[in-house]
Each structure stands twice: as structure tokens, then as C-alpha cells.
What does this fold into?
Amino acid sequence: MNPDFRKRLLQGDLLTGTIISLSCPQIAELLSRSGFDWLFIDGEHGCLSAGEIQLLLQAAQPRCPCVVRVAANHEAAIKQALDIGADGIIAPLVNDADTASRVVACAKYPPLGQRSVGIARAQGYGASFAEYVSRANADTAVIIQVEHVDAVANIASILDVSGVDGVFIGPYDLSASMGKPGKIQDADVQHHIQTVRLACLKHRMALGIFGVDAAAVVPFIEQGYTLNAVGMDTLMLEQSARRVLSELKSGTRR
Ligand code: 3PY
Ligand code: MG
It folds into this structure.
């Protein structure tokens, strides 16, 4: 487990990551060598199983901290992601303070929470059990997603939940919850995003969001977002393949 990620998150360092959705450890390894501060491994959407995520973690850690977005904000998904060695979790669709408290409880061992105690990769398969258990609560980052109109309405009480280390806004699910799926530039969707942003800044809560490319993320940084995911493995592959091909074609046309 990387002792620095949660510390850096809490002190408001700018942490630039990217999303991994493909079950290819070599891609995780090379992205971990590219200078990102963290990797966002997506266990919610896409096709990644827990076994595949563990292989990605093995390829990227300890070089680069890895945070797993769990399939659901439930105990089974949270304990499994942490037991296979995630440095933190991102819990989707946390719409109220009770859900946020439950997520924190699932991610922290007693006395802070009720995380179930098991032996897996995180605990060195038993060899580093005591050491892991003694530092897991301090080093595990708990990030929740605010991505529903109900979460926006409840943002003040969500931010008061002790143990929430960061908020990652999900503009796409937020737009869907407003009956406007995918319309993330819609004025009402943007208004809700601003409400969450201002509440987080006031609360000194680390705030994150996804942007498809650098141009999309620059304004977020200027607006105080510190936990940013720029692009994703599939987009980077697809875009660079198209760029190389189009450069080649325009060159041979000259
Ligand atoms: C969303 O936009 O819903 C997301 O979860 C982005 O990561
Ligand atoms: Mg989402």
C-alpha cells in the first residue's frame, strides 16, 4: 500500500491520473511509468473482474498508487477491492450521508469502521498481516462519487461524514439523473456541478472530476479540482492510432 496517496489527497496536492478500463497488465504497467500521480481502475463500468484488477494492481504498484472504482457502493465490492491491494476506493452513486457513512465503515477496520478482516494480497497473503492492519485505516483513501441530483441536494450532510477523503463528480450519471443523459454541458447540469464544487471548496474537501483530454482538464484545475482523471486507456489508444494514421496519410499525399 502506498502511504503517500491519501496524505497527498488530504493536503490538496494536484493529483493527475487516468482511467484504466482494459484488462491488460502491460497497459497498467506502462501507464504507471508515464508520470501519472495515480491510476483510476474502473471496476464499475467495462469488463474488469476482481482477478483482472488484481493483475493490474500487481503491474502498476508500488510505482503508482491505484484507486479502484468499485462496482457498487456495497460491502462486498469495497472489501474485495481493498483486500486485493487497492490504495483507495471510489464508491459510485453515493447519494446521501447514510450511504457515505456505510462506505467509510466498509473501508475502515474497527474501531473506525467495520471492514471485514481477511487475508489476501493486501496483507501479503498473511506475511504482512499485522503491518497492513496497523496502517490500513490511515493509508486507505475513501473517495465518493457525487453523481445524482439527490446527492447534490444532500451535499452538505455528505461532506460532514467523517472519513470521506474526496469527492469525485460524475457529470454523466448526474445528467442522467436529471433526465438528460450525456448532456453534461446543459445549464442545469453545470449549475449542479458548481453547487457541489463550491460546497467542496468551502469544506476543504478534495474534489475530482474526469476530462477527456488535457484541454478539458485545464479549466478544472483552475477551478480548484485537485483529483483529476484525464483520458482513459481506450481513448488514448484510439486517438493516437488515428493521429498516426492521419499524419501518415497527409504526409504521403504531399
Ligand atoms: C460519470 O460521469 O457518471 C462518472 O462516473 C465519471 O467518472
Ligand atoms: Mg458515473
